[in-house]
Amino acid sequence: MTPTPAALGKDLVGLQYLSADQLRTILDTAEPFKEISERRIKKVPVLRGKTIVNLFFEASTRTRISFEFAEKRLSADTVNIVAAGSSISKGETLVDTARNLEAMRIDMVVMRHPASGAAQFLADRIPSNVVNAGDGRHEHPTQGLLDLLTIRDRMGRVEGLKVCIVGDILHSRVARSNIYGLLTLGAEVAVCGPPTLMPPAVQELGVQVFTRVEEAIEWSDVLNVLRLQLERMEAGYVPSLREYNRIWGVSNARLEAAKKDLLVLHPGPMNRGVEIDSDVADGPRSVILDQVTNGVAVRMAVLYLLAGGQPERAEAAKQGGGDA
């Protein structure tokens, strides 16, 4: 297997321990890959001959398909495995599954798993590169990266911006990756949501906490609105969805009351009329579809770098003239 550059390392399991230079390297590498998705033939040969396994233990639409597009546009061979249709459903362990895949001489695993720390657990046990596509409540690093890229594209910078993450912070791996990445790149970060959906001692992460969404909007340059993760809630964290929308929902009325331009992000899937109203999601402040577009470019950059691609050769690779 091709040695990976020190710029990124063997695996991407989270953003917590990446430096500002490493984050900027990924974002800068993603920039030339954006243009590939606009071509008539959306393919370059930089990962030709590489085999990537997408191993998803949880349901996913945007992330899984985005990784598949990224892999195919880099000309990798891909294998898609979901837990329900594999030996995992028969009781096979994660390590046994991965070792059997390794025996088939794969190069990389992209994994989503309901257990926090699963990606690191796997990365420590197999020589192939591991990319975390979301592990429990821990991190979702490529979502954090595409959010950073979208903010940088629209605002021209990340450093010095005030970014507030609004919603279900407690269950959100997206929130954690955003917090780590934004703080590392010099943004001010706040969180806002019901006390029942706020992690204990969240301030220790270096963020400000708002108790009212109106205050958060007034303070912010960027809002990243998170959905209520009802599938992870065993108890009544909020009285009702209608009540949540009334108190915490991001609406045009609340945005207009602040009398300022804001950028509005949402990682999807959206609960329209709950955490975000349709006129915001589809309005001029929204960059939600830009996030989806940037997700493919960011994932192309991560796969390219982990496979040994050099950041300074990304432009040549875009033209099809530089292999990983």
Q: Can you offer a commentary on this structure?
A:
The chain has 324 residues and is α/β, with parallel strands linked by helices. It has helices at 20-34, 62-73, 94-103, 118-123, 141-155, 173-184, 213-219, 241-248, 252-257, 278-281, 288-306, 314-318; strands spanning 51-56, 77-82, 108-113, 129-135, 162-166, 188-192, 208-210, 222-225, 263-265. The chain has 2 domains: 20-139 and 292-321, Aspartate/ornithine carbamoyltransferase (Rossmann fold, 3-Layer(aba) Sandwich), CATH 3.40.50; 141-290, 3-Layer(aba) Sandwich (Rossmann fold). The protein contains 12 helices and 9 strands. Strands 7-6-5-8-9 form a 5-stranded parallel sheet. α5 packs across α6 and α5 (141-155) crosses α11 (288-306). The protein is globular. Mean pLDDT is 91; it is low at 1-6.
Brief overview, please?
By secondary structure, the chain is α/β, with parallel strands linked by helices. The protein has helices spanning 20-34, 62-73, 94-103, 118-123, 141-155, 173-184, 213-219, 241-248, 252-257, 278-281, 288-306, 314-318, and strands at residues 51-56, 77-82, 108-113, 129-135, 162-166, 188-192, 208-210, 222-225, 263-265. Mean pLDDT is 91; it is low at 1-6.
